[in-house]
Batch of 2 targets.
Target 1
Amino acid sequence: MIDFGFAFRASRKDSDMAAQTNLFSCLKDNFGVLLHDPASGATAAIDAPEAAPVEAALKNTGWRLTDILVTHHHADHTAGIGELKARHKCRVIAPRAEAARIAHVDDIVGEGDTVRVGALEGRVIDTPGHTAGHISYFFPADKLAFVGDTLFSIGCGRVIEGNAEMMWRSLLKLRGLPDDTQFYCGHEYTEANIRFAKTVEPDNKALAVRAEEVAKLIAARKFTIPATIGAEKAANPFLRADMAEVAKSVGLSGSPAWKVFAAIRERKNRF
Ligand code: ZN
Ligand code: FE
């Protein structure tokens, strides 16, 4: 078990109102998502790949942008910040370790910090590996996680600035969230991820179930996320590097999990 240093609030009080989300596509295959607190009217954009689709989502929902929660410094997650901030005067929250590489930052956060969007309370989880300072946001009362380019459905981000051991540890933190946590990631890569995952675990039943579900969603022109942590850890090979059958399938039985993870990630890079 991973100790996050804070207690999960098991359920919300009756007086609380549930968070709402709005998911939309940006750029080529990025997701944009709004997180809305109906009690206060506050709304956060998780990352800002580009301004126009965020504006369209705000118009569709009638929500007012108060915050931008940034997961990491890559341009496909930050390019829209300047325009959105100029227009909405919203507060920009960014990872401490990457603040120098992100323009227009107001507040910097790291592991264990609390982020408030109106009455919604999120916790910051350091998830380095894709970038050195990448963070994720977890809202325990609503069991919502925003994981940027660390975890994708049936995949994970490329290890660009960190190393495999670091990325594996970050994925373990996300795997340790409650099973019924719904996570939102930075990209719609699920279909291609499934094609690769089947080469690692051709007999994984949970993966077959997810593949069928995703095929239906894609045929219906729907997004494949959010997914739940519980379903993900049964089907995503990158969350399963410590399973004997996964180690065996990449010829690394008995090796440390992070080495198995590194081997799977290497294979995916070349897939
Ligand atoms: Zn990225
Ligand atoms: Fe990205």
Target 2
Amino acid sequence: MTSLLIALLFAAAGTGADRPGQTVGQMALTPPMGWNSWNKFACNINEQIIRETADAMVANGMKAAGYQYVNIDDCWQGERDGQGFIRPDPKKFPSGVKALADYVHAKGLKLGIYSDAGAKTCGGHAGSRGHEYQDAQTYAQWNVDYLKYDWCNCGDLRPDGAYATMRDALQATGRPVVFSICEWGNSKPWEWGGKIGNLWRTTGDIHACFDCKVDHGTWFSWGVMQILDLQKGLRRYAGPGHWNDPDMLEVGNGMSIPEDRAHFSMWAMLAAPLIAGNDLRRIPPEVAAILLNRDVIAVDQDKLGIQGFAHSVNEGMEIWFKPLDGGAWAMCVLNRSARPQKVQFEWKKELVVDDLHKREARFEKVTYAVRDLWTKKSLGTTKETLNAEVASHDVLMVRLEKI
Ligand code: GLA
């Protein structure tokens, strides 16, 4: 009996709390890809939208391109029952979450859900405080694959403790669940999140603008450039299984096509989760072309899992690099300014060094082929100077392969 107990204790200790970046098993080894309801629908969600979104992800090629999670954000909840079990809103989700998970799984996709560490979510629905183990068990019974866990109404709760409680609750179910920490970067979740979740929000909410800040009274939401600037210093914390999350994509939600392209490219350079936030059931071809760019997705999903860095910043022009598997590199020239700007890059004169990961591109010794990931055209090799013009709020994104 005693030896059985000891064996069980050892087995429990091995299920993950001690292994950074994991809940149960090896998860999110590349940044999670999928869709979430919040950016487009906010609280106006129902099971039909979720089902149609899953259908669309299969039909429009997103599933084939790697998008996997169909995530329901806030406002799916109804009341707790007499025993405290959470139930979905019977009007919005009359068939229940399990039926929805079955539907999504039958399409070869996975289902995500949302809760909050406080007693109430940001939208005022039932949160998980005091019900962590009960809720985790319920999600597991529903076959949920992903949990986004928010931070509204938490008073003076300690975030690392509150998130560790839910991680432990998820692990106790034995079901692998990607755990998304949504604490907005307030208490430097990058310092403790790697042992607790698979991704952590680094900022407040994104807003569908390229360069703006929106005052909501007690909080701000942020444009794409504002969020990009807030990622400074965080790359050391990201890696397979544990990612910085600069928030979900606003591609297709009102910015111009160049701005959407720049947003998507920079999220790929950041090795950010690629969670689409637009209405996938009605997706203009030029927006689909952005979300479906497999070369840019491959930069995001590169198996090294190294977050990119700014190599130079000059008058609204930024040049970013990201080391890729096999000695390749991604380079992205971002024009933040309001006018088109020329870029002239003399490879041999540049020292591209990633001190953190001990990688450098030695253009005087090694020649790389340069391929434009948006036009799909060859731009020659690193023996020649790169000369290009980048439109306002747009990017030039290339991949460098050794020849
Ligand atoms: C917070 C989160 C958002 C969204 C809403 C839902 O603001 O940061 O991403 O989940 O709550 O109410």
